[in-house]
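Standup notes
- HV: blocked on the assembly model, inputs below
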Amino acid sequence: MKKIIFKYTFIVFGVILFAMTSCEKKEVLDASALNLGGDNWEKSNVDIWIYDSLTKPYNIEVKYKWDRSELNMNKTLVPPRESIVIPVMTAMKQVWIKPYEFLKGPNFIKEIGQKQFILVGSVEYNSNGTIVLGQADGGRKITLFEINNFDLTNRQLIKRMLKTMHHEFAHILHQKKMFTTLYAQVTPGGYDPTWFNFRDAEVLRLGFISAYSRNSVEDDFVEMIAIMLTEGKAAFDALVNSAGAGAPALRQKELYVRQYMLETWDIDMTALQNQTQDEINAL
Amino acid sequence: MRRIRILIIAIVSLQLFYGCNKFQDFPDTSVDERINERMELYAEYLTDAPFGWKAYLLTKSGLQKNFTFRFNNVNRVFTILEDDVTEMDESSYRLKYLQRPTLIFDTYSLLHLLADPDDGVYGGVVAEGMRSDFEFHFLEATADRIELKGIYNESKLILIKATSVLDASNTFNDTDALLSEVSNLRTYFKRTLIDGVEYEVDLNTADRRFGLVRYEGGIAVRSSSSFYIVGDEINFYEPIVLGLDTIHKLTDVVFDPTGFLSAKLGSVNLRITEAIEPLFYDVTVISRFWASDRQLFFSSWTRDGVKDYLNESSVATLTGFNQQIFWMGFNTGYDLLGYAQSFSLAYGVAIGYNLDFTTGIIKYSYLGFLGSMAAGPRAITLQAAQNFTDPNGLYIIEKGASVYDLVTVTDARKWISITPI
């Protein structure tokens, strides 16, 4: 028995020695990968502004310099103008971050918000004649297109871009916590991949807030949130009241949206609408 | 026999040792290290040009444009485009290894106008623009000249180091001067004789293309290329093939006041003259061109080599109708020169057609306009329509699949391009 113990002690000692030798080997390894360049550049005032205004306070990265690997490889796209980055992100911060921050405190966006913005100068064209204005991926990333057209004097365009932002952020929300499956039962037969053949005004009577909301249940849900926020309560109510036969379905969807925001995120939708409107008007 | 075997073994051994010697030349650094060295070298080339680089771009759509770029060592690039040489913009660039050393103009600049998919920005096709690039692989590079190829559309970009401020500005001045010289030949058709053989010369200043065409039994033998101008030389992106020779440039280009253009193509002296009819005219082209309900795009008119001399491009700016659709057989007896946005037609000029299948000539008469348009742009569209009504008709020159030029028969001094939708 003593011999066995001695034998095992010897083996254990050997293993420890081997492990220590292995450690020693690691210390002399020089396996750092070479940097092939292109990922670092001299920081401009735009980079500094992004770091100070979004990265440091909210843990959000903004990629505005061209990186094809972040985008659809088969589409013709262009990068943003540098001069437009700060105005766009200032507006996004004001109309998207501030209302949530006002209602939920400084940690909400830090914890829930996506971690990365990708900015693209142009829209992305689809073969069916439609265009892509924004895209949310995996609850972590939002790609905003059409940045180069940003113009504060063009209120219709600004509203469209801000609506895109709220639309994509609503995707981020439901990608983290899904909304009720009952939502899909409100207008179950109305979803249509050829949604682009209809105008917004035509689909109201079908119980959809916009033509694009017919693309899928998820897009329907986030279109509701985006339009409720960017139009404000009064304009949204007027829109629903003009929907004729579609009004009850829209009211039911609105109810589900309000319940989701309150029960899932503890956010009063009316307060968020009012706060968002204040920020839009202040732009 | 044994001696022969020994000799063979000796030769083979010698060959093996010789082969081994070659391996001694292999670098002792890793691939990544060598890539880094090359990237540093390219960065040094780009930034070590105090007067910048003269840049000659050819897009996939065939548009040739000149720029100057000045790169500094903190990732900034200063760009001038030939369209307005008083405007210089600043943007950023970086070098990155993307399977090959790559130069990326990574924020929007004047260069990106041509690549913008919004056809309202710089023309071209919806969703593709002028099919240009802003990410380029290095093909060849020296301290004085760099050849690049676009990653996405395979545009060609040639950089030549400027030796002075004047040399940099000559990027634009030289081109203007030489194109002006060539534009003294006013007609669409041009001719020259080489070794007793008559050639049609396709010297197109508007599209910056040069080509030679001869006919063998009615079959065209063609060699052509887009070109860029450096100094007093016309340089081809693809060499012109003449017999067994491949020729890269046209030199000594001078217009003689007696009415011809002299130039040297390699060692061949050319005397290029005006012609008001094609060397060979294919009368059957009319049956391939015209078909009822066929829709193609039509360009602005060129006169005496001056593209868009009527300022037809302003119609798109003034009205938003940025598509010019040539709609054959729009209705009984007439074609429509339609103006549209997103293929939604709102206005058009009706021109009555008369097809002559014997001569291959098409004649038009003005009928009137359909729809409404503001008076200013409408006047331009009516002038453009009048050009279709040459009393002697229009030649139809087939340039490629569904690509045609229509040329006035009377004097061959006005022409228009028709391209696929």
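- HV (later): unblocked. The domain at 43-176 of chain A is CATH 3.40.390.70 (Collagenase (Catalytic Domain)). Chain A has a mean pLDDT of 87.
- Next: hand off to the docking folks.
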